[in-house]
Write a structure and sequence with these properties.
Layout lengths: L3 H39 L2
């Protein structure tokens, strides 16, 4: 049996997950600031 296609799929899935994770970490501070402002304006 040839598992090369499965291994390539797992490697590319890991790369995509890493890219998405890095983007989430980069966007988190801006999103947190936006969410805090939205909650603060709700209570004004």
């Amino acid at each position: 049996m040839d598992f090369s296609d499965i291994l390539v799929g797992l490697a590319s899935a890991g790369a995509v997950t890493a890219i998405i994770g890095a983007g989430a970490i980069k966007a988190a501070p801006g999103f947190a600031r936006w969410a805090t402002n939205k909650v603060a304006t709700f209570f004004r």
